């Protein structure tokens, strides 16, 4: 399966850049150079893509187990190298699952399955870069 897209420069404002991308799915997104406030930078989008990819897996797995998730979020942080190309040198994702009677072991299994088997964004990143996954279960 291939994903095709078109990346087009939308505006140049001062030293900032803004790009728009349109994908074969019909969806569009915008990226900013990081100096503006109009959109996420490509690096922020990459971190968000990893969190969203794992998050979709985790929720899907928990739903298959018929667990009642009432809220879910992923706290993400990435440490970047000081020198260009300033790549990520480590990433930490904390999956916070809220629900009624959700076993910690079920969340742990879902997070580990996403990271080890399902999340294509995870597998696209440099395998030498540490990606740490944590999880919390909140009753509610």
Q: What is the average of the pLDDT values?
A: 90
CATH topology of the largest domain: GMP Synthetase, Chain A, domain 3
Coarse morphology: globular
| Sheet/helix structural class | alpha+beta
Distance N terminus to C terminus?
A: 40 Å
Helix content range = 25-40%
Tell me about this structure:
- The protein folds into 2 domains: 1-39, no CATH class; 42-139, GMP Synthetase, Chain A, domain 3.
- The protein is 31% helix and 39% strand.
- It is built from 3 helices and 6 strands; from the N terminus they run E-E-E-H-E-E-H-H-E.
- The chain has helices at residues 42-64, 104-118, 120-124, and strands at 5-13, 16-23, 28-32, 69-80, 88-99, 131-139.
- A 3-stranded antiparallel beta sheet has the order 1-2-3, with no helix packed on it.
- The longest helix is centred in the middle third of the chain and has 23 residues, at 42-64.
- The chain is globular, with a radius of gyration of 17 Å.
- Pfam families: OsmC.
- This is OsmC family protein.
- InterPro entries: KH_dom-like_a/b, OsmC/Ohr_fam, OsmC/Ohrsf.
